[in-house]
Amino acid sequence: MAAMAELISNSVQEMATNGQEPPVKYFSKGNDAGVLDAPVPLIEIPVVDLGLLTSPSTSAQELEKLKLALSSWGCFQVINHGMTSSFLDKIREVSKQFFAFPMEEKQKYSREADSIEGYGNDMILSDHQTVDWTDRLYLTISPEDQRKIKFWPENPKDFRETLHEYTVKLQETNDFLLRAMARSLNLEESCFLDQYGEQPLVTARFNFYPPCPRPDRILGVKPHADASAVTFLLQDKEVEGLQFLKDNEWFRVPIIPHALLVNVGDQVEIMSNGIFKSPVHRVVTNTQRERNTLAVFCIPESDNEIKPADQLISETRPSLYKKVKDYVSIYFQYYQQGKRPIEAVKI
């Protein structure tokens, strides 16, 4: 219970509400600490239309756009994904409602000290770790028999049903996109999906970023790339915060309320032999407004061997990565040390 009590006392939302000075562990270290809220340019990442990807007359052009987006930025905004704007707003609303509940209600879903699942914030794995200015609700979605329903809020009343409906749709979209990614590289359509597997791990992370008194020194999420194959982000409808790193420069991600932001993770970078880039990204804070987002991570089956597709290996482009299983298990060791986990599997 002591560990849980410490976790709850560290609620970022409570610190923000009470006007507490953030502890030193929240302050970023490194070269850019002190200028985290400096103005940065806006990305113009492609918007990919799933309707155009499925139409014979437009699919080739849209596939080329998808390939260019993933080989240059590693991300894109997807529209025509089969979910209405009103449904996306409903998901945003249940998230806002949950984080607005009194602390005692949220504490019913508190994560245990040795697990990321449930309500809480960063796991403290090192004395030197920089802690993110965010509270989270982290849930396993799939395989369904691995769901820990005790962490799924009963309030709002439609939370569970809404999240289930959303993630079923996202998993269909994920499968479609993995096929499209393979086609864009002239590979067998099932090439990436076969490595992804039939029992993938799908997790959801609801993120709440309260106003922060020191946006010049404190990040909502420290720089990282994802351990997933594909990540879907439902952005806050009004408040920006997500930034991507390209050529050692940070860029802001624009908000398109009816779009989903998609980025590939390290495991698709490995499968594509480095053609698709798993982008480094971070979340900045601001003093004025809270921000809510929902990230869904689609992660290959842990027993599956992830490796560069054979057709993407040649004399001129040798294999850049070792074969790897259960990439997520090595990921967190490196991530909390501030290192890029994918460096560990490069040849």
From TrEMBL:
<keyword id="KW-0560">Oxidoreductase</keyword>
<keyword id="KW-0847">Vitamin C</keyword>
<dbReference type="InterPro" id="IPR026992">
    <property type="entry name" value="DIOX_N"/>
</dbReference>
<dbReference type="Pfam" id="PF14226">
    <property type="entry name" value="DIOX_N"/>
</dbReference>
<protein>
    <recommendedName>
        <fullName>Fe2OG dioxygenase domain-containing protein</fullName>
    </recommendedName>
</protein>
<dbReference type="InterPro" id="IPR005123">
    <property type="entry name" value="Oxoglu/Fe-dep_dioxygenase_dom"/>
</dbReference>
<keyword id="KW-0479">Metal-binding</keyword>
<dbReference type="GO" id="GO:0046872">
    <property type="term" value="F:metal ion binding"/>
</dbReference>
<dbReference type="InterPro" id="IPR050295">
    <property type="entry name" value="Plant_2OG-oxidoreductases"/>
</dbReference>
<keyword id="KW-0408">Iron</keyword>
<dbReference type="GO" id="GO:0016491">
    <property type="term" value="F:oxidoreductase activity"/>
</dbReference>
<dbReference type="InterPro" id="IPR027443">
    <property type="entry name" value="IPNS-like_sf"/>
</dbReference>
<comment type="similarity">
    <text>Belongs to the iron/ascorbate-dependent oxidoreductase family.</text>
</comment>
<dbReference type="Pfam" id="PF03171">
    <property type="entry name" value="2OG-FeII_Oxy"/>
</dbReference>
<dbReference type="GO" id="GO:0031418">
    <property type="term" value="F:L-ascorbic acid binding"/>
</dbReference>
<feature type="domain" description="Fe2OG dioxygenase">
    <location>
        <begin position="200"/>
        <end position="300"/>
    </location>
</feature>
<dbReference type="InterPro" id="IPR044861">
    <property type="entry name" value="IPNS-like_FE2OG_OXY"/>
</dbReference>
